[in-house]
């Protein structure tokens, strides 16, 4: 009996402790910040702007003061009259339910005594291809400044800012959650965010819920840096041309920016802000513009909805005197640190245009384009992420990580995946793009460049759930998966069954490598056996008369298929001559898939032919001096694909190949623990590249003259490098002016020994000059 009493006592104690813990958590939540809002009318549903104010006292500046800020959809933060964050917040949707929040260090902006907080909030109020609306405009703010807690609650003051309206039609197309901003300065209080005292027009706010409540749900920390604000720059006179009622202002390049103007005029005049991308190069769909209604006298205004283009058009009546026009570039916080240069101006221009196109398609997410859609099409992101590893600093890695987690965190209950995400009005799966994402060129390439093993641990099981959805023929090859859109690529002559099978094989390859890395030995063995069987059956079924073709396919031979077969390793070197013939005869790939053709030709060891094809196919957009960016298709507008934008980063895959294959810089093991330097110059005689890796800067400079080859290489600390010389018979090889020992034995990692069998030698960290003589 005593034993049962003891058990009963323990049970009662346990229950009491649980209840106490629940009460403590409830109390802690109740005392925390609230979601707050302002009263809205029944028609206030889309494009709602509101302002919030809070004053508080500090006895001293605290040692730390990090604010937690969440909104649906964007905010601008002022502390003591100084702008601290220009466009904070991320388009909503780390997953189908939750909301991102920012962390902002406010310590540099606080002072002893009275402090003023002002927050301007923009609620999109509609879904898009990059945004999942919560359906409710609100602000969440939490700051611990020493012993002082500043929390959004009923003590804040707020106001619906009616000066912000929606511009008349035409409205942006359905893919965009943003609206065209129409700002009426006649009814605006333009200083409310900088005034010391809170304006009497700001009234009590509504408390709408606590952290975790519907419809915002769990708050997820922003995984990328706050945007980079380049500040307002004024157009020089030489860059402004007057055409009737329009000032045509030339920007230095195609950029994301907000327009600024200082003017004098009568009240009630309309000033419009547009770009050449809005007027001429819009991708066959309405995108974003801004409108401003003047007040009487001297005034200045910045339109906060970002736009892009090569030219800003400011349209104003004659009696509006414009004294100054400017722009604020704002974009993803990453620097242009990678480099490429060669003795061929064409490829130098292509590389720089590709980087510019990449940067303009980075913001809340990777985007296909910055105008028509601003959507994270995941096949595009595969190419963009790889380009960023070569062209930008390591802060860009966070955007790739965010992309991969978002795609998998939006996985549906049945295991299927779709993109673009986050999205509130799109749910269609493009099977080929999903396979690219979860396979070798997506998550595995991210891991190779970053060494971020946690992402493999987190996403590997979900990837297997998706791959298990694919139906197979009795021979093990996969059937066409319907998904939501059997896309394959823009253009014609798509041998779809083969494209799907090859992307599936590359997904198996990625999974096999991940299983090895994670120590999942049974999975790794099973996947390797499946891949071997798959490759055999693929060749048996589809290789006929010197080309890969589905017997049921009636179009022209698909160059895309042959590129993927080479890159997958399904095509053997014995097939390369026939495949080379395909590449010389067939040109069906879009600029998106042309990257894989370019890479396949380098993989086959035909760099001269690869460069010639790429130059031929990209000539019109690279040689066009008007545009600093690359197009969606081979032409503009109706001559392109899908609307024909002039800024599509999927066209920049050549950047990757020039750095990774022509100059030969590639991670040989995850996180650049080992680095491959394997240049293939083709008919180029001089080329140089640098890459800012997670281990430091990797550089290579190659020169070839007559029978001599010179390589100057920098290998960062904590790594080792494998150098593979271009194809040729080298009689002598010098390393830092010392002739290396040459051996014909099986290559190994012994440093400073040249292996004739594969023309390789391993080098330690440091700067090295290699001279090779044929």
Automatic annotation (TrEMBL):
The Alpha-L-rhamnosidase six-hairpin glycosidase domain, residue ranges: 337-579
Alpha-L-rhamnosidase C-terminal domain segment(s): 664-733
Gene3D superfamilies in the record: 1.50.10.10, Galactose-binding domain-like, Maltose phosphorylase, domain 3
GO biological process, one term: carbohydrate metabolic process
PANTHER family: B, PUTATIVE (AFU_ORTHOLOGUE AFUA_7G05040)-RELATED, C, PUTATIVE (AFU_ORTHOLOGUE AFUA_3G02880)-RELATED
Full protein name: Alpha-L-rhamnosidase
Species for this entry: Sphingobacterium psychroaquaticum
């Amino acid at each position: 009996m005593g034993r049962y009493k003891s058990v009963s006592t323990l049970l009662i104690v346990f229950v009491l402790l649980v209840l106490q813990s629940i009460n403590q958590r409830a109390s802690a939540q109740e005392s925390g910040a609230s979601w707050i809002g302002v009263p809205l009318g029944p028609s206030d549903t889309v494009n709602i702007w509101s302002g919030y104010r809070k004053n508080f006292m500090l006895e001293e500046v605290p040692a730390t003061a990090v604010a937690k800020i969440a909104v649906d959809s964007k905010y601008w933060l002022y502390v003591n009259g100084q702008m601290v964050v220009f466009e904070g917040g991320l388009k909503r949707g780390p997953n189908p339910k939750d909301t991102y929040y920012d962390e902002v260090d406010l310590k540099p902006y606080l002072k002893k005594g009275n402090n003023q907080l002002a927050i301007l909030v923009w609620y999109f109020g509609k879904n898009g291809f990059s945004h999942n609306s919560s359906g409710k405009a609100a602000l969440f703010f939490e700051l611990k400044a020493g012993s002082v807690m500043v929390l959004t609650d009923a003590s804040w003051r707020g106001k619906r800012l009616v000066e912000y309206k929606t511009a008349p039609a035409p409205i942006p197309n359905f893919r965009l959650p943003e609206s065209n901003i129409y700002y009426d300065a006649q009814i605006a209080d333009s200083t409310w965010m900088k005034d010391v005292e809170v304006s009497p027009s700001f009234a009590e706010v509504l408390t709408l819920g606590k952290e975790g409540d519907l419809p915002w749900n769990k708050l997820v920390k922003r995984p990328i840096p706050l945007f980079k604000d380049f500040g307002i720059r004024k157009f020089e006179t030489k860059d402004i041309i007057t055409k009737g009622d329009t000032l045509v202002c030339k920007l230095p390049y195609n950029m994301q920016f907000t327009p600024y103007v200082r003017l004098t005029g009568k009240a009630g005049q309309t000033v419009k802000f547009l770009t050449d991308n809005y007027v001429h190069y819009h991708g066959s769909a309405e995108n974003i513009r801004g409108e401003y209604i003047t007040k009487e006298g001297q005034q200045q205004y910045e339109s906060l909805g970002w736009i892009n283009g090569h030219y800003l058009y400011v349209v104003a009546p004659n009696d509006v005197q414009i004294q100054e026009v400017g722009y604020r570039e704002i974009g993803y916080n990453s620097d242009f640190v990678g480099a490429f240069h060669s003795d061929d101006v064409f490829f130098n221009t292509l590389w720089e245009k590709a980087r510019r196109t990449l940067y303009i398609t980075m913001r809340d997410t990777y985007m296909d384009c910055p105008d028509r859609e601003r959507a994270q099409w995941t096949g595009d992101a595969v190419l963009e992420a790889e380009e960023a590893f070569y062209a930008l600093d390591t802060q860009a890695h966070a955007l790739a990580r965010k992309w991969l987690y978002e795609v998998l965190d939006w996985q549906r209950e049945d295991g299927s995946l779709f993109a673009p995400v986050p999205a509130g009005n799109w749910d269609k799966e493009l099977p080929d793009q999903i396979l690219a994402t979860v396979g070798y060129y997506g998550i595995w390439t991210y891991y190779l460049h970053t060494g971020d093993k946690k992402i493999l641990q987190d996403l590997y099981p979900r990837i297997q759930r998706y791959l298990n959805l694919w139906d197979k023929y009795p021979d093990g090859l996969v059937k066409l998966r319907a998904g939501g859109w059997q896309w394959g690529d823009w253009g014609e002559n798509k041998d779809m069954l083969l494209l799907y099978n090859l992307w599936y094989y590359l997904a198996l390859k990625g999974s096999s490598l991940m299983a090895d890395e994670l120590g999942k030995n049974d999975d790794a063995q099973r996947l390797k056996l499946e891949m071997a069987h798959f490759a055999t059956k693929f060749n048996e079924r589809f290789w006929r008369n010197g080309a890969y073709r589905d017997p049921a396919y009636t179009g022209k031979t698909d160059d895309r298929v042959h590129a993927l077969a080479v890159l997958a390793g399904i095509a053997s070197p014995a097939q390369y001559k026939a495949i080379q013939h395909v590449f010389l005869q067939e040109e069906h790939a879009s600029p998106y898939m042309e990257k894989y053709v370019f890479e396949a030709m380098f993989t086959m060891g035909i760099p001269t032919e690869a460069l010639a094809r790429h130059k031929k196919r990209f000539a019109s957009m690279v040689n066009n001096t008007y545009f600093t960016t690359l197009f969606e298709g081979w032409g503009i507008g109706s001559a392109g694909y899908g609307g024909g934008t002039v800024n599509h980063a999927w066209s920049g895959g050549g950047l990757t190949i020039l750095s990774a294959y022509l100059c030969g810089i590639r991670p040989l093991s995850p996180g650049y623990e080992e680095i491959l330097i394997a240049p293939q110059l083709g008919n180029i005689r001089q080329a140089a590249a640098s890459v800012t890796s997670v281990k430091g800067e990797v550089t290579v400079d190659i020169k070839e003259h007559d029978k001599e080859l010179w390589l100057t290489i920098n290998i960062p600390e904590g790594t080792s490098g494998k150098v593979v010389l271009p194809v040729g018979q080298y009689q002598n090889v010098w390393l830092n002016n010392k002739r290396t020992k040459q051996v014909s034995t099986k290559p190994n990692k012994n440093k400073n020994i040249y292996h004739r069998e594969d023309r390789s030698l391993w080098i330690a960290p440091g700067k090295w000059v290699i001279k090779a003589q044929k």
